[in-house]
Amino acid sequence: MTEGPRAAHAGHSGPLTRRWIEQRWLLDNTIRAVGMDWDQPRSIYLSAPCGPEANADFALLRQRIGKYADAAPAFEAVARRREARAQAAESEGHLVTACHNYFMAAVHWGAAQWTIDENNEQNRTYNDRKRECYRNFGKYADHVVEEVWIPLPSGQSLPGWFHLPAGYGGGRLPTVIAIHGMDSFKEHTVSLQGDRWLQRGFAVLAIDGPGQYESAMLGIHFTMDAWVAAGKACVDWLVRRADVNPEKIGMSGVSFGSFFSTIAAAHEPRISAVAVAGVCHEPGFHTIFEEASPTFKMRFMYMSGIEDETEFDHFRKTMTWEGHAERITAPYLCLAGESDELSPLIHTRRLMAALKGAKRLVVYQDSRHSIANVPAANLGPFPPTLVADWMAATLQGKAFQNEQWYVEASGRIVKSPLG
Questions:
Q1: I need a labelling partner for 370 at 20 to 30 A (CA). Which of 2, 74, 255, 280 fits?
Q2: Whether residue 58 is found in the same domain as residue 188
């Protein structure tokens, strides 16, 4: 990075990339033309766990965000309004309303962090408000929400939230470790109401793993070794609990979480099942970092604690499941889009071939990276439900054939053997 471009962005102390500087005008014009969901259906996956009341929030946000710089202030404004509504309801004794609004406020505060790739005061403030709102949501939720810190060998601790299903009365539960993607955060991993895991009797450990959101703020950066350590640390923490069945621990990862989950599970045999969706499986990750939105690369540089683009280009070539996935013997479910623009399907097929345990690959016709908004996803198996049902059945000991499922646009599933 030359001094000229860096000097021109003197107010930005985080990582910068050549494409970000050269293509910023194109990025903003794309957002103006396409909307805030130009790179992925962010408003959909953020809205979904909040429930129907949040629809108006996201309709407003879609109108308000016309360029990249609009995102943080737009989400901040909605977060403040939701937090104020929660506080007013709390003071009047309307605790259900307070609970719901604190949850939505936490999601909006987290989303406000999305475009901030540095640990500045703004990012720290948003993070503090997110945590406080989520903590208040937990006070009034219909189930146990426990603030947790997972000790790491480095002496640091991963931030997380541990959830028990409503009405939990004792005993050891099947548990899922939920791993979100690059632009997501642990506070929206479990839905406000009707959560797919809790309703099936799972406990859920939702974390910000190495490099993800709050962990990056704490200096816990992404490395391959860090994710190996994180998987072991999470399982060590879980098996010491009286409410967790140590024989029934699963891991679920979405988007870049599909890669993180694969690395973690490869080195933690106590993980009994792995389910991933919307995959990132390309060794070296050329496509997502060099051909997709320039925001992805800059975000991951922040996650890795690397500000020099040349250094990161060498570093990313070490990011691969090769030599790791071959260790996985646990059952593995993978949902992928046929036309994934961030991770070409050929790399997922290679990973599936390397696995040693039972496996199922579900490919959705015409779907891009986010498996949604295509007929195959609308008429075929709904991806989150398919993952949750598979995890429940697998942890109960139900066997399945090694298969590929090809979900056609009609919703019909065409099954074939998977070697």
A1: 74
A2: no
Provide, for the chain, the percentages of residues in helix, strand and coil under a 3-state DSSP scheme, each rounded to the nearest 5: 50, 15, 35
Range of the domain at 167: 142-419
AA letter at 67: K
Q: Are 262 and 397 found together in one domain? A: yes
Backbone phi, psi, residue 279, to 5°: -80, 155
Distances (CA, A) of 220 to 157, 188, 304: 8, 20, 9
How far is it, in rounded angstroms, from Cα 58 to Cα 18?
32
3-state class of 153 per DSSP?
coil
Q: Are residues 122 and 50 in the same domain?
A: yes
pLDDT in tens, the chain (419 residues): 444 445 445 455 689 999 999 999 999 999 999 999 988 889 999 999 999 999 999 999 999 999 999 999 999 999 999 999 999 999 999 999 999 999 999 999 999 999 999 999 999 999 999 999 999 999 999 999 999 999 999 999 999 999 999 999 999 999 999 999 998 999 999 999 999 999 999 999 999 999 999 999 999 999 999 999 999 999 999 999 999 999 999 999 999 999 999 999 999 999 999 999 999 999 999 999 999 999 999 999 999 999 999 999 999 999 999 999 999 999 999 999 999 999 999 999 999 999 999 999 999 999 999 999 899 999 999 999 999 999 999 999 999 999 999 999 999 999 999 97
Same domain, 75 and 122: yes
Please tell me whether residues 335 and 359 are part of one structural domain: yes
* 185 and 59 belong to one structural domain: no
The amino acid at residue 62 is: R
Kindly state whether residues 100 and 147 are assigned to the same domain: no
How many domains is the chain partitioned into structurally? 2
What pTM, to 2 d.p., does this model score?
A: 0.95
CATH of residue 228: 3.40.50.1820
Query: CA–CA separation, 297 vs 294, rounded Å?
Result: 6
